[in-house]
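Design review, sub-item: ligand-bound model
Attendees: FS, YL, KQ
YL presented the inputs for the uridine-5'-diphosphate-glucuronic acid complex:
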Amino acid sequence: MKTIVLAYHNVGCAGIKALVENGFDITAVFTHKDNAKENIWFNSVAEYAARLNIPVFVPEDINHPLWVQRIREMAPDIIFSFYYRNMVGSPILEIPLKGCLNLHGSFLPEYRGRCPVNWAIINGEKETGATLHYMTPRPDDGDIVCQEKIKIADNDTSESLHGKMVKTASNMLNKILPLIKEGRAPSVPQEHSRATYFGGRNPNDGEIDWSKSASEIKNLIRAVSKPYPGAFSFAGDRKCLFWSVKQILIKAAVPMPGTVISTDPFVIATGRGALQVDLCQPDDGVYMSGVQLARELGIDAGMRFGRDIKKYLEAERKKKVLILGVDGFIGNALSERLLASGKYEVHGMDLRSGSIERFLKNPDFHFYEGDISIHREWIKYHVKKCDIIIPLVAIATPIEYTRNPLKVFELDFEENLKIVRYCVQYGKRILFPSTSEVYGMCEEDEFDEDNSRLVLGPVRKQRWIYSCCKQLIDRVIWAYGQSKGLKFTLFRPFNWVGPRLDTLNSARIGSSRVITQLILNLVEGSPIKLVDGGNQKRCFTDVADGVECLYRIIENKGGLCDGQIINIGNPENDLSIKELANMLVEKFSRHSLSSIFPVFAGFREVESKTYYGPGYEDIKHRKPSIRNAGRLLDWFPKTGLEQSIEQTLDFFLHEAVESGEFNDVMCNPEKFGRHGVDEGKVVSLSLIAN
Ligand code: UGA
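KQ shared the predicted structure:
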């Protein structure tokens, strides 16, 4: 039977051996290159197959069409996978007529996923198993061909259990392979409701939590003991690895977890019971007994093991976040969230302090009035002093892209590039605001950070200078990440809305985002302009949702956001500008302050050339994929559009009233009726309703 094998590890070698002994004709073996960072304690599948004169391949991605085609040309009847580490996609699974079979190191459906042997020991299981099953595009969930149980002894380690696994797998294969050859092997669906799933593990997962019981800690120690990286804990800032321990009975009351009860024998208290340490190692030293370790490190009874004290103090220290453009829409909302957490100090610079006035007395808030193109020394010093750098200064309103393209280049690109370089120089983490605009006129339904095309118009369309500057700086940051190790996350806000988005005054000179512009029209009683008819769509995102996502990026749990690009948008709030305008008008008419303002002056359709000038070109739709934010941060937007619009409208109407500009109206309402309306050019509300 023509067979292809995907294999790694000792189980991989055992699988190939069983296939050969049972007369399977192996056309090729696919395996992995050994990872230089991993302790390679197991046998090499590549070497084993090569000695048998079987061709060996190590694809970077076995699912790449080139490899799929090669496998198809090899025309296998059957494919076996033995401890191969990558998922295999449908195009390969569909090739062999007799299917693809995988050997998994557990008694399925329990312990699907990664590291089943280690997890079984960690969880104190008394038995596990080996299972041969049909492969599907999902991990370990296909019909079972055969399975056998394996007993786990109290003193088994992952290494010894692996040994049992190899033996069981070999025996099981020798029994089932003849039946597979004859087409008589069974196939029984898994009981999916009983499935459990466990993920991958890394060396940091070996840190001991002394508040757990003695048996739980012992299980962790034997699960990650040699050849794995080991369980560890800290005496002060000295890391100690624990290779072998036993549970002991203590008659007296057990002190705080982690406390050394005696040094000879070397006994440590846990959350329940105590452990005697038999074999251990200071991380920069050699193996030794617990008694010797206590002597060499000067550990006395009463001392406590725990987390790395330096790291603990560092984790407890308030992190300093530098926000350039702190008074802006995102800057002030983010500062509020950071200060409320009590975990951060904010150091901010801006030209003015209108929006952040409310934090000026907060001891964790430090404001400096300045200009990023002038106060460069201040910035350099603060990049050096702070932990996380967020440069939010940019021109970000479309009319300015066409009106002042060079200013956009100088500020958004040149000035920000300097800050990126300071971060490289001082080894600081940067969170850089990319933009939804980088996707340009991408035609895909959803814009995906890692795969979508970035599509811009011709050079004479100056609108794209902003997108182009941001794209180039994204690429520069990415390259610094690769070549100089810059720690970064690029985030892309999608049409965030909320209080303090631009100002009504900026809207007065046309330099604001659409919602502020429209609210100004309502406040002033001028017609709402629907550029090119207003059918273009955007996904509006509430600033509170956006800032929550940004906050999680700053927290960066497990370093998951490093080197990532993350869209922050609300794909549910997808609507046209015309629909947005209708919603605003409706909410305005029902707002308690609406009587103070002039009567709604209707809609007017205008050409974009008239509104923005000839350098403008628009985006028909703009919808984010938010898979990265969901996967990395467990973030999903919560606020519906109605609520966002109500809050934004309410904020600006109050601001307009507080400005005093409408005092006259409040005293003398009949003087103000339809104000500023050019009746002939206005499109009625009913005409544009969709
Ligand atoms: C803007 C900015 O370019 C970016 O700074 C930002 O990254 C992006 O929003 C975002 O927040 O994701 P855009 O959505 O095109 O891009 O800009 P808006 O000014 O908010 O305009 C949205 C749409 O409304 C445009 O099609 C515009 O032509 C239209 N519009 C604007 C009107 O129909 N009437 C108006 O009075 C103003």
